[in-house]
Write a structure and sequence with these properties.
mainly alpha
Length: 321
């Protein structure tokens, strides 16, 4: 379709550019981010040439290209594009315009992916303030910004700064969106994770249990979010010394990941390692060694040489023998 549009209408025609955008989206959806990058680079160049660098379509094209770089793991390229898009939208539209605020959130996500946590936190704090002032505290974007800032604090190890924001995000989403909204359940799981990180297991475990129940009811037992919630609950039981409750959940998680994702998926490998660790903790050493051996064999087969997980499993196996 792109080739036909280019030949008949020309490379700068609106229909050709739209077809190119659709092709890039299809490449990203198919897990081909490098192809999406190449397509979007052409699209951006044409819009920049014909519409000018300040045109809204050009700015949107630049943001889309940044997304593609981020998906391809090219974080430095993504950050440069996100920064320039934010600067231009702030200059042209003002700091409180929705597109400017969206650009700020995109840049913060790229900073987080690159491990530039202080930069991400600074941007997210500004985003939250602007959204509270322009959209109000109950706007879904404001609720999301609050949750994103909490996650950034959590990611850099400052759980005590994250906790009040997680609690606020959960309370506000329950009130505004309802207890069964997916975003509310995500906030519930995030608060549980923060409590787990802070070793507040008596608080974390009931929250994880609620999250598992909600995910299973709303998304079904095979949804990736449900599998992750079940694994998190097992980990909390394990941390609390309630191994007899953790092991059945680890066993179910391993069975489900193998069935749904295959033996080579990193979630399957992680689930098997968690189960082996629980067996070890409970003193079921023969089973622990057998599962660690299988995990090590799979890690060596499916992961790149020298992968940290392989070394960790090797050390755990030696400790269990």
């Amino acid at each position: 379709m792109v080739g036909t549009g280019t030949r008949i209408l020309g490379p700068s025609h609106a229909s050709t550019l739209l077809a190119r955008d659709h092709l890039a989206a299809a490449c990203e959806a198919a897990g081909r981010p490098q192809d999406a990058v190449a397509t979007l680079e052409n699209s951006l160049a044409e819009r920049d040439r014909t519409l000018g660098s300040d045109h809204p379509e050009t700015l949107s094209a630049r943001s889309s290209l940044a997304h593609a770089h981020l998906a391809a793991g090219r974080l430095d390229d993504a950050i440069v594009l996100y920064e320039s898009t934010l600067a231009d939208r702030g200059r042209l539209l003002g700091p409180g315009h929705p597109d400017t605020i969206t650009s700020r959130g995109n840049l913060a996500a790229a900073y987080r992916a690159a491990g530039r946590m202080q930069d991400a936190i600074s941007v997210l704090q500004r985003t939250l303030r602007d959204l509270e002032a322009t959209a109000g505290p109950d706007d879904p974007q404001t609720l999301a910004a609050c949750a994103d800032l909490a996650a950034a604090w959590h990611q850099c190890g400052r759980v005590q700064d994250a906790m009040p924001l997680y609690e606020r995000a959960l309370a506000d989403r329950e009130r505004v969106l309802g207890p069964d909204h997916p975003d509310t359940v995500t906030s519930l799981a995030n608060l549980a994770s923060a409590c787990h990180s802070a070793r507040m297991l008596k608080t974390a475990i009931p929250l994880y249990e609620q999250a598992v129940s909600a995910r299973d009811r709303m998304q079904g037992p095979d949804h990736p979010d449900t599998l992750a919630a079940r694994g998190n609950l097992a980990s909390a039981y394990h941390s609390a010394g309630r191994i007899a409750l953790a092991i059945p959940l680890y066993e179910q998680a391993l069975h489900d990941y193998e069935r749904l994702m295959g033996p080579e998926h990193v979630n399957t490998l992680t689930s098997r390692a968690n189960l082996a660790s629980a067996y070890h903790t409970m003193g079921r050493l023969t089973e622990a060694v057998a599962v660690f051996e299988r995990t090590l064999s799979d890690c060596e087969r499916y992961l790149p040489p020298g992968h940290p997980m392989t070394q960790t499993i090797r050390e755990n196996l030696e400790a269990a023998r």
